[in-house]
Amino acid sequence: MLCLLSAAVFMSGCGSVKAPEPKAEPLEVADESLIVVGVSQLGSESVWRTANSASIQRVFTKENGFFLNFKNARQKQENQIKAIRSFISQQVDYIIFSPVTEEGWDTVLLEAKEAGIPVILMDRMVKVEDESLYTAWVGSDFQEEGEKAGQWLADHLEKEARQEEEIHIVVLRGTEGSSSTIGRTKGFSRIAAAQENWKILEEGDGEFTTAKGKEVMENFLEKYEDIDVVVSQNDDMTFGALEAIEEAGKTVGTDGEIIMISFDAVKAALEMVEEGIINVDIECNPEQGEYIEEVIRKIEQGEEPDKLNYVSENVFTRENVSDFIDERIY
Ligand code: GZL
To answer: Could you tell me the strand order of the sheet in which 308-310 lies?
Structure first.
């Protein structure tokens, strides 16, 4: 048996068996004039993600000159890598994807580059040796979002004359290793580091979902008697955390004992800002389809698109939310 195995290894070329080249299966697209885009969306974990997908599906239509091949990876990096490989074998014109986490993309992006297919990153960022592995990125400045949250809290506590009081903070973090989690955590921590009276009791992984956000918040409420601030890195986790806070008999919001800071600013959360349940919501704009279309149009016209394309975003409190809530479609 050992001889057979070593012979097999020898025949395959000293044991380093290379993945078979994806065989080209060009997608049958009836109308050759359409621009074929392959989109790998990371999942459907939140209201924000659903809105982000809707933005893509609204823009990349046949009427608008595109053929869209859209795949949902259900939070798994291996599903995104499979999808990208299938787009390469279909010889699409563009690959668009929102990387579930930052690491582990070099190999498959090199395959796309070698196939001559431009890759456009949507929402989240990749950490790669060679930045030429992607043509452009469209998304948010996550560190700035975190800093906005920290600065709002510093200003709010000053207004409340609480600069001398020890402020106890817990953080519900999003998907581990995602650029939104990394950036928001870094940005808030940078502001917090300058506030001597702030004490971050604990950070927990709420995975950007309501269920996990509730579970982590229940844990915090059992462990810590007096939490002053919750920093929740997306509205879905905030909805879960609010349930846990209510079940624990605590109060939250503009008139409550706990300050609630959230991110994304989806409509259901903005309504809670208006009601004074969420103190502040840092917007993260999912409407990225038009921005990505602009990048593609530039490339089609032989122009060099900007490498980094930031979407516009706001900060919502009770003072300004009513001016925006009606136009919110997600
Ligand atoms: C942010 C995006 C995050 C949202 C979450 O750009 O990556 O992922 O904040 C979503 O709601 O799940």
So the answer is: 66-72, 35-41, 94-97, 119-123, 136-139, 308-310
284 lines ligand 1 (CB under 6 A): yes
Question: Which single residue is written with the structure tokens 């043509």?
Answer: 135
Angstrom distance (rounded) from CA 191 to CA 187: 7
State the pTM of this model.
0.90
d(CA 25, CA 85): 11
87: part of which helix (H) or strand (E)? helix 77-89
Q: Measured in angstroms, how far is the CA atom of residue 301 from the centroid of ligand 1?
A: 31
Using CB atoms within 10 A of its CB, is residue 274 exposed (0-12), middle (13-18) or buried (19+)?
middle
| Sequence-separated (6 or more) residues with CB below 8 Å from residue 316 | 265, 270, 273, 280, 281, 283, 324
> What is the position in ligand 1's atom list of the atom closest to the CA of 45?
12
Smallest CA separation from ligand 1 atom 11, residue: 48
Atom of ligand 1 nearest to the CA of 140: 6
Ligand 1: nearest atom to the Cα of 123: 6
How many A from CA of 165 to the centre of ligand 1? 32
Specify the amino acid at residue 158: E
| Mutation test residue for ligand 1: of 44, 49, 285, the one with most atoms within 8 Å of CB | 49
Residues 6+ apart with CB under 8 A from 287: 51, 52, 55, 311
> pLDDT tens, 164-202?
999 999 999 999 999 999 999 999 999 999 999 999 999
User: Using one digit for the tens of pLDDT, what is the confidence trace for 42-98?
Assistant: 999 999 999 999 999 999 999 999 999 999 999 999 999 999 999 999 999 999 999
Q: Which of 176, 264, 310 to mutate to test the pocket of ligand 1 (most atoms within 8 A of CB)?
A: 264
CA distance 157 to 196: 13
